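Standup notes
- DV: blocked on the single-chain target, sequence here:
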Amino acid sequence: MTQSDLPAASRRGFLQASSLVVGAAAAATTTAVAATSTVAEAQESTGGLHPNTASKIFFTADTTAGKVQGIDNAGVKCFKGIPYAGPTGGRDRYMPPKKPMPWTGVRECFSWGPINPQTPADMRSDYAQLIMWDRHVGDGPIGEDGLVLNVWTPGVDGAKRAVLVSFHGGGWETGSGNFPGFDGGNLARYGDVVVVTVNHRLASFGYVNLVDAGAPSEFGYAGCCGVMDMTASLEWVRDNIANFGGDPGRVMIFGQSGGGAKTSVMLSVPAAKGLFHRAAVQSGSMLRYGPKAHAAENAEKLLKQLGLSRANAADIQKKSWQEILEAQVALASQGVGFSPVMDGKYLTHDPFDGKAPEESADVPIIVSSMLEDAALRLTNFTLDDAGCKAIFDQRFGGKGAEILAMYRKRYPSKSAFALQAQAFTDVGLRRAATEQVSLKHAQGRAPAYLYVWTWPCPAYDGKFGAVHGVDVSASFHNYRDQTVGVGSKDGRLMVDRLSSAWVAFAKTGDPNSSVNPHWTPYDPVKRSTMMFDVDAKCEEDPRKEIRQYWDQMPRA
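- DV (later): unblocked, structure below
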């Protein structure tokens, strides 16, 4: 995806700076609040089968809100669109998530539930086509009844399997658990685990600092209600997943890109403490929030775009979600974005600023980057060494020759495009990943594992290299995806490599398996790093001279 193809907020996002500071919004306090106990009747269904009827196709599970029915595929039972919280429109907009309204009968969960308001990605971008991001909206409806999740399980049988909960990518602005790349069926079958994907509020629906923009105090949760949604989804897992064959005492959260940022945040949320037991951050290490004052400025711009002011800010609840999304998109072209900001109540401190969060001190983590992560924003595929030197000169204060020489010495056969992408990754996202894993190690309570994915994506004649997002399909064991070669021999090996680590980590807190070489936890002396490739190996301080060079340079 070119820089111009991305929304302005996304361009400022994950590959921008060492700390991956992602824009602004205030936060909140407490976890999901119980809604009225009125029994919902509009969404119930008898399901066509009595709940106790034996079936090889349909399977029913109990939740705290009512029974749900899923459907079998090759031994994996899939339940789609299960509400973990109530609707978020009207008077519930910008409020904490409420418990879902109970229903009677059996709710059919065969089709995708709603996703939260957002725009599709530009389908003209080769990168968007590569990772299918023009499909990130999935196949469900769009609206404000989108606090739903999807479950894939090998059995509704009380087997107490490890549970993997995915928070989707797309920054804080786009994406959904309905995205084809997050389909959990293959991973559930491969690892005998339960897989959950989550939809939650995004951008101007989940992260607006309305109180500091003049709204009444009851809007104090508006800046972090999207984070509260994720906590509510984990509370749902705690309370219900045993009925889907899962173990609420072995829950792993993970996510890539924006999902990695969300995972970073959840590691520091007091209300989420104890709701998960392992975590993995893929190409999305978020260390700090944006400034609260900047979030208030963005909130005022949103109000103005909607024809509102500080005096009638509460009337934002009277607007349609389409009007709010229109205003958000208009502001994105001006560089205005919306993401969580520390408020001191619900989000009490930065995720990883000088130290690892105490809330998750006993949680082992995996942190990663792709060798050419930054290639997602670049399109100058015919770049030569002279052009690469000029770009380095401009960005790094005339040091282009020495930087190019350093990369060319290690990678004599790589394209200049790939070297450019590596440098931009090394100075930004990879630096943040290393800082995050180092802070976790320094805490001394649980191990931290680091990996770099170096296997280049074979699609588009390999021009993107090991680009941002290629490891998503591998983490879900989706070997059919184009990012991993549509079932090619090497692609299937790479999928087995990462998925086996995910399954082992979810089950035991240790990612080692028979599929990979032994993976040693990270420490700042040996700097052990798994280099995921066809010939995977755990190396001590790989690419040492490149790391040392950027360590002594000021942060970009």
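- Follow-up: Confidence is low (pLDDT under 50) at residues 1-46.
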